[in-house]
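Structure in, sequence out. Go:
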């Protein structure tokens, strides 16, 4: 466990500007996805502030831990992270899935949370790529994401 903590601290010890970009990008992305999910009646958070806990408190650190791995590894580890998040959200009813939504119709309601996890696991490699592009454009190549 000590090895993991040392490793994680090294991955999380980054430029504060990089963390700020992650927070801005992920918060915006989360608000947009929550709005979109409610508009098309797929799923939504019970409370708007859950965007902060899920996207910033949970997903930003996971992204930082995964950021230097290859795309496929980020996706695979991200899938594990998102399965835990999706399972918890629907099990504790802090997320609301609209009855008979588009994903239920396509994949069956028993596969809904799995489908959501499979989709949202892409956030980690795509988010890391996008944040790197923004960081490089603003500050030059000083921090490797």
């Amino acid at each position: 466990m000590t090895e993991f903590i040392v490793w994680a601290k090294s991955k999380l010890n980054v430029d504060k500007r990089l963390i700020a970009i992650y927070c801005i990008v992920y918060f915006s992305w989360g608000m947009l996805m929550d709005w979109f999910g409610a508009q098309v009646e797929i799923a939504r958070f019970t409370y708007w502030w859950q965007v902060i806990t899920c996207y910033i408190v949970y997903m930003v650190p996971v992204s930082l831990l995964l950021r230097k791995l290859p795309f496929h590894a980020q996706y695979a580890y991200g899938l594990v992270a998102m399965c835990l998040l999706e399972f918890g959200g629907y099990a504790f009813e802090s997320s609301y899935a609209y009855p008979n939504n588009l994903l239920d119709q396509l994949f069956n309601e028993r596969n809904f949370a799995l489908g959501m996890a499979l989709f949202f696991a892409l956030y980690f490699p795509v988010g890391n790529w996008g944040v790197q592009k923004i960081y490089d454009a603003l500050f030059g190549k000083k921090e490797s994401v």
